[in-house]
Amino acid sequence: MGFSLAEAVRTDATEIIVVEIEPAVVAWHRGVLRPFSEGALDDPRVRVVTADLAVWFTGTSDRFDAICLDLDNGPGWTVFDHDTRLYRRSGLAMLREHLRPGGALAVWSAAAEPGFAATLTRLVGPVRTVRIPVERGRPDVVYVASCAGDVSGG
User: Fold this and answer.
1) Mean pLDDT estimate for the chain
2) DSSP-assigned letter for residue 79
3) What predicted TM-score, i.e. pTM, was given to this entire model?
4) Is the CA virtual torsion 128, 108, 104, 14 positive or negative?
């Protein structure tokens, strides 16, 4: 949540929902990791939900202007097997169904993932790939897919 949430609270969003599966991660960001999110959890627009993200999405009919997926290390290098499901066609299609017309799905990755932008383009819409320089190693990558039109039928 750290850097991503710190960026989200800099926007004019009226509500920011953070879904985090691990309660300890939330506690760390309220404590020792607070500087990395610049205290963003204290912003009144932020609501934290402790849940599995895929399960949470299946339990809501809400639609969003933006969904920012900052999960594990990205689509090509997951530590936990259950995290891969949101990067598969079915998971990405589920996320797309929760976007409002004109919404965007942003997917953070610790490294470029060959073919992922093409998959997002097919399932969501045109993709802009943004490389983010990091202190060491290759740049992080954020894939931003724009969803034009109504997504309510698939």
Assistant:
1) 88
2) S
3) 0.86
4) negative
Supply the range of the domain harboring residue 72. Answer: 60-154
Specify whether 37 is located in the same domain as 104.
Answer: no
Give the position of tokens 């897919």: 145
Q: Which amino acids are annotated catalytic?
A: 70
Number of H helices, E strands in the chain: 5, 6
The 3-state DSSP class for residue 24 equals helix
Domain CATH number, residue 119: 3.40.50.150
Helix (H) or strand (E) segment spanning residue 116:
helix 116-123
Are 128 and 145 found together in one domain?
yes
Same domain assignment for residues 38 and 105: no
Length of the chain (residues): 154
Number of domains in the chain: 2
Mean pLDDT is lowest, of 19-23, 64-68, 69-73, for: 69-73
Q: Provide the b/e sequence for 105-123 (b: ≥16 CB within 10 Å).
A: bbbbbbebbeebbebbeeb
